[in-house]
Sequence to fold (474 residues):
Amino acid sequence: MPSSVPPGLPHVLRSLVYLSAPFLAVYVFSYFVKIPTWAFLVLQTVCLPIYLVACVKIKDFRGRRAAAHLGAIPPPSHDGESLGNIDILVKFQRIYKQGFLGDGVSEAHAELGGTFNLSILWDTTTVTNDVNVIKTVLATDFNNYVKGNFFQAFMYSVLGTGVFNADGMGCGCDFHCGARSITHNSQTPQARCGNAALHKMKERLVEGHAIDFQKAMQDLVSRFTLDSASEFLFGKCVNVLESPLPYPPQTPEASRQEEVLTLADKFARAFSRAQDTIAHRGRLGYIWPWLEIFNDKTGEDMEIVDSFLNPILEDALEKQRAEKKAGLWQDAKSDEVNDQDTFLDHLVRTTTDSQVIHDEILNILIAGRDTTAGTLTFAVYFLCMYPRVLERLRKEVLETVGYSRRPDYDDIKSMKYLRAFLNEVLRLYPAVPFNVRYAVNDTTVPNPDPTGRPFFVAAGQPKDYWGPDAPLSG
Ligand code: HEM
Fold:
């Protein structure tokens, strides 16, 4: 994908230039002022820690001065017990593997309130779940916040220059308007793939097996969203729903079932792993480049992703070349969407840059597929947990849509209970539970205490949001 240079290398080289400054200063000093060799060696040994402590202190002083200038105070600080809060970093890594994403953060919110500062290895992030702060960042002070170089750097090997890695409201890049308008075309593929998924479940139930929620249901929903997304994005269903569902464990069929992976299955798995890797980079903060000096941890997976995706993209570009040759081709403006176009058709009408097309397609797949798969999985989970809700929802669907028709947009809009149900699922298990923005200039965000001074946010300091209503624990 974007580069053959390991993604950590440029960052580490930049850091090495920065870290070599004190050694260079000692060398220059000893050149002009004659000092004994032992003093030179001692200075060379201590200069780096002194330099780093000085940088932290200067940054701290600068922050306090800027806060005072803006009439603000720093938010409360979440402190661990070890140097640089390494214990918190380790705890968060453990939680990510064993618990719910927001577990460690929710404990800190319970102790410190809606907004607090978290410094990992002296790199400070303001974490908030305060709706007024989120409103400030996403609306009233929107122009002062960007996704930032750090975020874009660790995402780049997977997202490239696609919509999720671009600043602005998506429409900063012309394609995204098209992406929004074109999503209405997704209804037919979803209906077709939905039927295929229901058929798969019925088949298994007729065989006399339950659908194991964790293994089979999540698997089925992920395959349904990949099939419907691929059909609506490329106009070509990848048919991952065709592979058999996993049998419940402990059944004789499960022990006999061989896992045969199609190219589309391999694509889906590699794509998930690559997303996991970039999420892990984000959690490691500025340490991640040091772990990827020699290799790109998303490299192998992105090769699999590309071996699946590139032939589809190449086909579309080939079709474009052939139509141009035959004089049948029509360029499109980014906001003009032909009703019959898939998202890929629309992209090839607006650009011939295959990298841009590749990145945009992958970004929309991430935007639309995992969010939908996660939400549908939790929706089914809650329907199993709360039969009363299932009964009421079923009644609304049957009253609105009946027994034989497929729901259309107007039906979906008019089903109030369905909307309330989905909102509640998203409140409890948000598909996008965290988001990050960096402040361009020093600024302030509201303090929940109306008598207190506003909280200070330094330029370049990331802000993490976490949904205020997300679950506090399992
Ligand atoms: C439960 C379902 C979904 C949830 C919770 C969700 C949530 C979000 C959130 C929070 C963002 C903002 C990200 C940021 O600015 O950092 C976003 C952006 C985006 N989403 Fe979704 N999304 C969902 C489904 C979809 C679907 C189905 C599609 C398309 C097929 C889609 C396309 C996009 C695009 C293109 C963007 C980025 C462009 C922009 O900033 O306007 N999303 N989504």
